[in-house]
Structure formats: C-alpha cells, structure tokens
Design brief:
alpha/beta; 8 strands
Length: about 210
C-alpha cells in the first residue's frame, strides 16, 4: 500500500490491521509554481478584494471547519482590524456558510471566489496577509506547502497530518477551540517578527517536499 503521509499510514494500519511493513509513504508536493506567473493580473480587482485579507481554501465539507473560521474572523474584525476574509473555491449562494455570513452582516467583508483557475492561485495567496487552514482532518494538506512557497505566514489546525506537513513553518491551534484560533491569528497579524519567522521556516520546510 502506498500512501501520502505518516499520519495516513498510521490510520491505514490501525483501521485495516495491515502489517506496517506493507505500507510505504510517498509524500506529496505543492501545486503552486512561481514560474510563468503573469505579473499583469490584478487579482484584487478580479475578485472584488478591497482591503488586506486572510485567505483560506477548501470545500463545503463540515470537516474543513470554515464556519468556525468565519466566526473567528468576525470577532477579529470587531476588534478594529481592517481586513477581509477570502474563501477560495466557495460559492456564496451554494454554501451553508452564506447564512452565517448574512447573519453576521459580513457580506462586505467575506469574499466567496467560487472556482479559481490555477493561474490565479499563486496571486491570491501571495497578496494575502495570512493563510489559515482550520480543518479537523487532512490526510496531507497541499495548501500549506503552497502558502509556504508563496512566502506567506500560516495559522493551521493541529489535526491530522497538518503538523507533519507544515512542520515549524506554521503556528498551530486546536480546531475545536475557536478562541484559540482567534488568538493565533491575531498573534500573526500583530507581529511582523512572528510573521517573518514563519515565512523563513516555511521556505525551509517547503524545500523538503
């Protein structure tokens, strides 16, 4: 059996009662590529971004924990942070998140990009202030490596394979603890030293994949 992380290997062994010798880990890599980047793309104009922003990727699956990120973002925004939240891949009208955004009066502050072509991904990450990955469960976590390649600080869940993939190039929080998520996000936003250290360590970690 070939799998993508040591975490996934442990899950396979535990749940399928497989001999560890029969499971091989072949790590994945990132998807963002700094080569052949169109520098003329105005990513803010394309997606209606009007301020500094936090960025997050994912799907509508509840395990992605984006609803709690929205609640955390709202608390952060209310403490005088002039910042937006960009949710890549999500569509407002098709998402259970839309009701949360509506109820919190966040329509001007949360941007649902919908489908994003691959040539826009690097630009969206690169222009952000912080990449947040709040998932409850991941078998690998490619977006962490993409953000590290883009030299962006990361606040990540400590669940699943994410600490294995992000290593010390991320600052971690318990995804079930929204207050801890808020504290970690604010710690990065408030400190250029913390941000710079995460970027430096992230680049080193990215080179391992």
């Amino acid at each position: 059996i070939i799998t993508i992380s040591e975490f996934s290997k442990r899950e396979i062994i535990e749940n399928l009662c497989v001999n560890p010798k029969n499971v091989t880990v072949t790590l994945l890599s990132g998807s963002s590529d700094k080569k052949n980047i169109d520098k003329n793309i105005n990513i803010q104009e394309i997606y209606g971004i009007t301020n500094n922003y936090i960025i997050a990727f994912g799907s509508n699956g509840s395990y992605k924990n984006i609803d709690q990120l929205v609640y955390a973002f709202n608390k952060i925004r209310l403490t005088s942070y002039k910042i937006q939240l960009v949710l890549v891949g999500y569509q407002h009208k098709a998402s259970f998140l839309s009701k949360i955004v509506d109820d919190l009066n966040l329509n001007e502050h949360v941007i649902f990009t919908g489908f994003v072509p691959s040539e826009h991904v690097f630009h969206l990450i690169k222009k952000s202030k912080l990449f947040v990955f709040p998932s409850f469960y991941e078998g690998f976590g490619i977006p962490l490596l993409d953000a590290q390649a883009c030299e962006i600080p990361i606040a990540s869940s400590n669940a699943g394979s994410l600490p294995e993939v992000g290593n010390n190039g991320c600052i971690y929080f318990d995804p079930a603890n929204t207050q801890e998520m808020i504290s970690v996000i604010k710690k990065v936003l408030d400190s250029s030293d913390v941000s710079d250290q995460l970027v430096s360590q992230g680049l080193k970690n990215r080179s391992n994949f």
